[in-house]
Amino acid sequence: MAHGVAFNDYVGVGINFAPSAAKPQRKGAAAPFAFHLLRVEAIAAGTDGTVVPRHVVRNAFEGEWLPAQRQARTPGKPWAWMETRSMRIPEGARAERLHLVGWVQDASGQIVAAAQSVCR
């Protein structure tokens, strides 16, 4: 997962999934794969009127990757699925506190990968 810098109330985001060529997928992990991408604002305790830390989901995007949508990567690298797009920064959210949380599920609903970006 990756995200860019804020520009005109939008942020570019991306998610990709490339099953490891060195480690075969476990039996049953098969396409289509569903992906979920959340834009989350981390609000520290003692700020914005909260006494506890909070993580507020500000945007969500879901999709599905089908076998025919695999994209070739550089020669010698495994294939991958990719999705890139822009997400609007909602009114009231502070861009510097936003990060991404995402996961990929196989056809049976099992989570096969999960990650989050770092908010700096």
Outline the structure in words.
A hairpin with a 6-residue loop joins strand 1 (2-3) and strand 2. The chain is an all-beta fold and 120 residues long. The chain contains no helices and 7 strands. Helices cover 0% and strands 46% of the residues. The mean pLDDT is 82. The strands form 2 sheets. A 4-stranded antiparallel sheet has the order 4-3-6-7, with no helix packed on it. It has one domain: Immunoglobulin-like, CATH 2.60.40. It is elongated.
Gist of the model:
By secondary structure, the protein is mainly β.
Mean pLDDT: 82
- Within the largest sheet, what's the order of strands? 4-3-6-7
| Count of discrete alpha- or pi-helical segments spanning 4 or more residues | 0
CATH topology annotation:
Immunoglobulin-like
Rg for CA atoms: 16 Å
Helix fraction, binned, reads: under 10%
The level 1 CATH classification is Mainly Beta
Unreliable residue stretches: none
Number of domains: 1
What is the terminal separation in angstroms?
A: 15 Å
Tally of extended strands? 7
Tell me what portion of residues adopts beta-strand conformation. over 45%
**Could you give a short account of the major beta sheet?**
4 strands, antiparallel
Output the structural class: mainly beta
